[in-house]
Design brief:
The protein is α/β, with parallel strands linked by helices. Helices cover 35% and strands 16% of the residues. The longest helix has 18 residues, at 61-78.
Length: 272
């Protein structure tokens, strides 16, 4: 029996869905492909009203989570996500924050326990394609690393996904984008990236054109307005935003289908 074409994106927090996968979610939903967004935490360690940080007076974890989940639903609507699944774990906060020590923080949940829940979703939706973070969670966030571990464990235990990808930011593309913004006169002080930031270009296997969906991504990102001061991309000039959002990149980690070495479609080899 033919399975309905399905992509499942496994993310850590509300707002993570937009930058690296918002375009593919919108594009594939537009093609009639089922898009499943799994968000592992409720985002309690995000900013409260006025940018108040966790642990500061006025930060209410429950209120922050409620606001961020509402923003997530709005973002998912802009991206045309067909199914939004919330695992509901507690946000662990950035690496080194006091929230890391909370016993209920997602990063402290046994991988097998969280993977069992994700496995149930894989059994229900039977995605051919799963997208998540690499081993370092892109930039070392404890919840991103945990989401990676959970997605890998669920993929291995179920054997359902035909292909699994890591989101990627090509190192040379990032350098070009920053050079463009500097040449445009944008103040880049405070935004210097380490030399090893991003993915070496030779490791990129898949580049997906999502240029028709740039506005979907921008609207989805703006939906997360409570975290706006942290969203650098919203402060970029329109031309730079389009340059940043017009394509999404991936490293194919698992493939059980005949796919070319270099792809422009996550479903390459799966469309029949």
């Amino acid at each position: 029996m033919n399975r309905e074409l399905t992509v499942m994106a496994v993310h850590a927090h509300p707002d993570d869905e937009v930058i690296g996968t918002g375009g593919i979610l919108a594009r594939y939903a537009g093609e009639g492909i089922r898009t499943v967004l799994v968000t592992c935490t409720n985002g309690e360690q995000g900013d409260g009203p006025g940018g108040v940080k966790p642990g500061e007076p006025g930060h209410d974890d429950a209120a922050v989570a409620e606001r961020r989940l509402a923003e997530l639903r709005e973002s998912a609507a802009h991206l045309g996500v067909t199914h939004l699944e919330l695992l509901g774990y507690r946000d662990s906060g950035m690496d080194g924050w006091s929230g890391n020590a909370h016993p209920e923080a997602f990063a402290n949940v046994p991988v097998e326990r969280a993977a069992a829940r994700l496995s149930e979703l894989m059994e229900r939706y039977r995605p051919q394609v799963v997208v998540t973070y690499d081993e370092i969670g892109g930039y070392g966030h404890p919840d991103h690393i945990q989401a990676h571990r959970v997605a890998m464990a669920a993929t291995e235990s179920t054997g359902i996904p035909d292909k699994l990808y890591y989101t990627a930011s090509p190192r040379e593309r990032i350098r070009q984008m920053f050079d463009f913004m500097r040449s445009s006169g944008m103040d880049m002080s405070g935004f210097e990236l380490p030399e090893d930031f991003g993915t070496p270009d030779e490791l990129i296997t898949t580049a997906v054109d999502v240029s028709p969906y740039v506005e979907h991504k921008i609207k989805a990102l703006r939906a997360h307005e409570s975290q706006g001061e942290n969203i650098f991309l919203l402060r970029m000039p329109a031309e730079a935003q389009h340059q940043a959002f017009a394509a999404e990149f991936f490293v194919r980690r698992i493939s059980r289908s005949a796919a070319p070495d270099r792809e422009d479609d996550l479903f390459a080899g799966l469309r029949g």
